[in-house]
Amino acid sequence: MNQKEFQFMLAPLEDYSDNAFRTLCHCHGADLTFTEMGRVEGLARNNKATWAKIEIKDATPVQVQLLAGREDQLEKFLGKFKPFEGFKGFNLNLSCSSPNVIRQGRGCAMIKRISKTARLISIVQKFGHPVSVKIRLGTNEFEKRHKVYLNLIKSVEPDFFVVHVRTGEQTNENEPDYSVLPECVETGKTIIANGNIDSAEKIELMRKIGVGGVMIGRAAIKNPAIFDSLKGKNVPPIGEIKKEYLALGEKFNAPLKYRNNISQCMDF
Length: 268
What we know:
Elements: E1 7-10, H1 19-27, E2 33-34, E3 38-39, H2 40-44, H3 48-53, E4 62-67, H4 71-80, E5 87-94, H5 99-103, H6 114-126, E6 131-135, H7 141-145, H8 148-155, E7 160-164, H9 181-185, E8 191-194, H10 200-209, E9 213-216, H11 218-222, H12 226-230, H13 238-251, H14 256-265
Helix pairs in contact: 1-13, 4-6
């Protein structure tokens, strides 16, 4: 990733980030998109439902997000994976706050497992693929105070980090803590900010802090053209954008669940 160019990224969104939605957002300014989270074990054993989450049908720039735990299963999956047009690498999910995922020692519970994370990153790099890491500030306030996120950023070497500025026990109703971003940037690593970034004022703040870009999730579901809007471009009415999405849904045979979820979110 060009570190000098401020990037606008579409977040990986469960039950939303299908191919049609990713393509729509890319057409309206998202520089990079992400698939839904795919569990590595399911991918390694060729589970159809898991593979469907990372299915690619066009050349939209995308990273495949993985929930990884066992190194041998990651190796097995990568051994059978074939890069495609638009493939920009893998993203390791160290941000999922699901209690079940955390109990397994994965998602944001991985943030303090530096050696394990370093091994997973190195496996992806061994296969010659770009790799990024999406993190939170820890599973709870205690881990945040002890800066487990900063220890990880300093200790491992992916291509970039996406930092969701909440802890695992916080929800989207909690205010994001942008105050942690300057120390993340000071590590010299490429940092992408995530968490309620939905206005030109927040983009200006992020640029001043010095992050390499932003990742947008919930705001993009309501208005997939938010990327162009934040870049200062004119955008069509939401009704036209919805028609674009429905046409893409038909083209890519998007599951009805996704079409309904996204259409309902654009009805405001």
